[in-house]
Amino acid sequence: MYNQISAVKSEIRSARLVHVFTGSDAINVLSSGACSRLLRAAMTVTYTGDVANANIKAFLKTIFRWKGSVWKAVYMELLIWSVCYAILSVIYRNALSETQRDLFEKVALFCYKYGDFIPLTFMLGFYVNLVVQRWMKMFHNLGWIDDVSLLTASYIQGADEKARMIRRCIVRYVCLVQVMVFRAISIGIRKRFPTFDTLVASGYMTPAERASLGESQFYLPARWAMALVRSARAEGRIHSDQAVQDLFREITDFRTRVVALWLYDWVPVPLVYTQVVFLTVRMYFILAIMGRQYIDVDKHPIRGPVDAYVPFFTVLQFTFYVGWMKVAEALLNPFGDDDDDFECNWVIDRNLQAGLAIVDGDGFQPDPCVDKFWDDQHGVFHMYTAETVNVPQNPIRGSAVDA
């Protein structure tokens, strides 16, 4: 992975600049291929193909990943915890008098006995469930331009330059709504487009449009798009009022979805809940530094018959519980720069590219034709490769059929 990122960075350094801005807002806009490959190398961890089959190979391929893994999430805190544990253990074994050892053992037993009073599983379970549900709703509201573009291409007729301009402007305005919202909530997008001038230079808006827009006026580009729909209807480029309503609905639905992300960003999970959970987990393991010390087993048999130098089961517990907490930390705001945060740059790039491609089209429309199964009197003959033809299938069959 490191070599992949380094290679892409080298390509970026040598890439031909598309635009260069000067002054206080100086940025370089690089070749889209190099940038998109860097984003793929640096963010969302996709491992779905590794778990296509439920077997030990899939388990091993998943468990030994590093990027986005539990090991990467907890290793630094586990290292700090282990060092603190080792220091106390060395002090107890080598530096204390008998009286001091007795006091140390009493404190260790006290922490051991009452440490489990902290409701760790209960609090973490509810909190992580809340954060995951919130994260899923955010993902479903990212916004995809396809429906708007398909309806625009289908309903707004005409091959002349004016018709093409209307279709492309509608898509661009809808994409602009998304970019404006993402600039407000995503660190990566804000760095990419620090000012509206960079949006002008990137083609998302014109200088005249920029003069009319404010930072939080997410409704304005949507209104411009709807005005173009009305204009197209008045000019006869749209042939029915129902088509106008369909376009209005898709534009407003898209805006509603992406603005919902802005609202999620504005009102997060209550801070007190987040503080309580994060403090609970860390305080539990701070107490465990003392409470899980292996003290004199002859005097305190409750602590177990073996004097182990490494608290193996506590390390496992630390990995699982802190890793569980890290899930919530990573998903709490998926618009940052963590391994599993949303690919916001890719989303806006893909939407603009796909949207314009859909409304422009390539001019080709296949004619209706006779399909391969036209004269098949015995139903459709399904084709399989030699490798898949003998794979058993379980078709739908009522459970009472063979009763």
TrEMBL record:
<feature type="transmembrane region" description="Helical">
    <location>
        <begin position="73"/>
        <end position="92"/>
    </location>
</feature>
<dbReference type="InterPro" id="IPR000615">
    <property type="entry name" value="Bestrophin"/>
</dbReference>
<feature type="transmembrane region" description="Helical">
    <location>
        <begin position="170"/>
        <end position="189"/>
    </location>
</feature>
<feature type="transmembrane region" description="Helical">
    <location>
        <begin position="112"/>
        <end position="132"/>
    </location>
</feature>
<keyword id="KW-0868">Chloride</keyword>
<keyword id="KW-0472">Membrane</keyword>
<keyword id="KW-1133">Transmembrane helix</keyword>
<comment type="function">
    <text>Forms chloride channels.</text>
</comment>
<keyword id="KW-0406">Ion transport</keyword>
<keyword id="KW-0812">Transmembrane</keyword>
<dbReference type="GO" id="GO:0005886">
    <property type="term" value="C:plasma membrane"/>
</dbReference>
<feature type="transmembrane region" description="Helical">
    <location>
        <begin position="271"/>
        <end position="290"/>
    </location>
</feature>
<dbReference type="Pfam" id="PF01062">
    <property type="entry name" value="Bestrophin"/>
</dbReference>
<protein>
    <recommendedName>
        <fullName>Bestrophin homolog</fullName>
    </recommendedName>
</protein>
<comment type="similarity">
    <text>Belongs to the anion channel-forming bestrophin (TC 1.A.46) family. Calcium-sensitive chloride channel subfamily.</text>
</comment>
<keyword id="KW-1003">Cell membrane</keyword>
<dbReference type="GO" id="GO:0005254">
    <property type="term" value="F:chloride channel activity"/>
</dbReference>
<keyword id="KW-0869">Chloride channel</keyword>
<keyword id="KW-0813">Transport</keyword>
<dbReference type="GO" id="GO:0034707">
    <property type="term" value="C:chloride channel complex"/>
</dbReference>
<dbReference type="InterPro" id="IPR021134">
    <property type="entry name" value="Bestrophin-like"/>
</dbReference>
<keyword id="KW-0407">Ion channel</keyword>
